[in-house]
Amino acid sequence: MTAYADEPTARSLLVRTARSLFTRGLTHGSTGNLSVRLADGSLLLTPTGSSLGTVEEDELSRTDLNGAHLEGPRPTKEAFLHAAFYRARPGAHAVVHLHSTHAAAVSCLRDVDSANVLPPLTAYYAMRVGTLPLLPYHAPGDNSLEPLAEWTARSHHAVLLANHGPVVAGTSLEQAADAIEELEQTAKLHLLLRGHATRPLTPEQAAALAPPSP
After folding, report:
1. Residue 59 falls within a domain, yes or no?
2. I want to staple 168 with a disulfide (CB 3.0 to 4.6 A). Which of 95, 103, 124, 180 is the partner?
3. Is 61 domain-assigned?
4. Which ranges of 38-161 does DSSP label H, i.e. alpha helix?
5. Would you name the residues annotated as active-site residues?
6. Has residue 132 been placed in a domain?
7. pTM for this entry
8. Dihedral angle, C-alpha 109, 114, 116, 117, nearest 10 °
């Protein structure tokens, strides 16, 4: 798809998606943030300090592709992460960042492969997420993470922030939300299966299902 051309529709979709993620327990309190890329190249984002369960359409923020605030309330302090993903992935038109419980738990584990944190336990994970690198810990809002995030996003549409949570880009908000939910469910499976012998997809099986690059 192309960037979201109809701003009222984009605002409505952002709020509906935020509500859905919040009410289903995929984020909590004032954590998590969503964005879409508009047809003029600017970004529409949830604002800083807001809850995805209560944010309204007229409370959304707009920034440029470098994260500079253009209008509306002050954007999420992680706007720089969203902008980095859009710059790295021209085909991406939405970014979702959550503090979902099981993915956040995995991000705190010591014994993980930082190049690919979760095994491909299911076909849908392989299709919607693929590989998931772990980026080193930075405090929320620390924009020194921006260059590494942009570099990593060139080859991965999903990353996990250490001691924090996942960030996923998609060609649409629906696609990004589906992928981050699949990531959360796979993190849950991974934790449930710790200590058990598992049978993930083979590298060949996972490669055959790898998602196209937005």
Report:
1. yes
2. 180
3. yes
4. 79-88, 101-106, 123-128, 146-153
5. 78, 124
6. yes
7. 0.96
8. 10
Joined together, the tokens standing for residue 52 give 């995805």
pLDDT tens-digit profile, the chain (214 residues): 568 989 999 999 999 999 999 999 999 999 999 999 999 999 999 999 999 999 999 999 999 999 999 999 999 999 999 999 999 999 999 999 999 999 999 999 998 999 999 999 999 999 999 999 999 999 999 999 999 999 999 999 999 999 999 999 999 999 999 999 999 999 999 999 999 999 999 999 999 998 877 6
Q: Can you list the alpha helix ranges (DSSP code H) found in 56-193? A: 79-88, 101-106, 123-128, 146-153, 173-193
d(CA 183, CA 146): 22
The residue segments making up the domain with residue 166 are 7-209
Distance CA 62, CA 88 (A): 19
What CATH number corresponds to the domain at position 87?
A: 3.40.225.10
Cα 53–chain centre separation:
17
Any alpha helices (H) in the chain, and if so which ranges? Answer: 7-23, 79-88, 101-106, 123-128, 146-153, 173-193, 203-209
How many domains is the chain partitioned into structurally?
A: 1
